[in-house]
């Protein structure tokens, strides 16, 4: 079929090239063979030329050697100490084989001489003990650091609890008039103990109890400091229990001072709590009678006999009054009614020595105001005796 020529252009037919079929197995000879079929074998390619700068040969591959890398050795039964993290440097060193227990040399620290010290905590856990571990062997070493005092009188590992920051080291007590007692500075727990154990000892009750600033002011009914009437025995017990409570709470009497008032203030200082015993006594104004109030049994029995031995033919009487007071009276000189046969201070000093030999000493004196039968005002000074603490050797 002939194509139509474009307008104005002649038509030129395509030339036909001769193509002879080739039936052989090899390539057709000559250029007349045409294009080879697409399934024919490719023309052989010459090898690529070698580069001018050849690369070095690659290393020979090798397999993984498990023996060259040590593994983590599991803990044995004799290694009971805590396993700490080992340094990375130790992981690259092969773990040596365990040696028999019979050939293990003892540690140098085990061959040193040890000194046994007193342990206040007993054989139990010591709060001053810490443990450390040997990173190579895994043995736990216990190191105790007891506190050692240079003073040999103090025991080893003595732990002294410091007082509270708001606890005062001193407290002052004063007895005003016939029925008033003041405590300063008054802490909350001190007031609770006084209101619970001391104030109820007076059977007539309390007239007022108030806190003014840091001072506790308590007034009682019917003048307990007058030391008269049917309740005088309760007044004596009131003062004894007052001193005993202060000592049990760790406050001991030190001295008395007049600070801004004519009534002396008894100063108590913080010391070690002690279960001490107390009893009272007083002298008559002329010094002839010595009265002991609720003395211990051994003092009640022996003081009269010992005074007779120390002052022969000077003791007039030695009696018990009202079942709780021991009254010792001395003789007067002949033809006089104002003085005794011996010096009063000498008798008093001898009585103090006997009481001290029996386990008590004079601890404090309390001046109290009182009224006599005529309404005249006078003063009586109470003597407070305290048991002597036994020193343990």
Give short descriptive properties of this protein:
alpha+beta; elongated; 6-stranded antiparallel sheet; Gtp Cyclohydrolase I Feedback Regulatory Protein, Chain: K; 393 residues; Gyrase A, domain 2
Describe the model.
The chain is an alpha+beta fold and 393 residues long. Among the domains are: 170-270, Gtp Cyclohydrolase I Feedback Regulatory Protein, Chain: K (2-Layer Sandwich); 278-358, 2-Layer Sandwich (Gyrase A, domain 2). Helices cover 15% and strands 24% of the residues. The protein has five helices and 14 strands. The chain has helices at 88-91, 188-198, 232-248, 297-310, 344-357; strands at 129-133, 140-144, 170-176, 180-184, 206-212, 215-220, 251-257, 265-270, 278-283, 289-293, 315-321, 325-330, 360-371, 377-387. Strands 5-6-4-3-8-7 form a six-stranded antiparallel β-sheet, with helices on one face. Strands 11-12-10-9-14-13 form a six-stranded antiparallel β-sheet, with helices on both faces. A two-stranded antiparallel sheet has the order 1-2. A hairpin with a 5-residue loop joins strand 9 (278-283) and strand 10. It is elongated. The chain starts with 87 loop residues before the first helix and ends in a 6-residue tail after the last strand. Residues 113-133 and 135-143 have low confidence and may be disordered. Residues 1-104, 121-166 are annotated as: Disordered. Residues 126-139 have a biased composition (Polar residues). Residues 1-11 have a biased composition (Low complexity). Residues 38-60 have a biased composition (Pro residues).
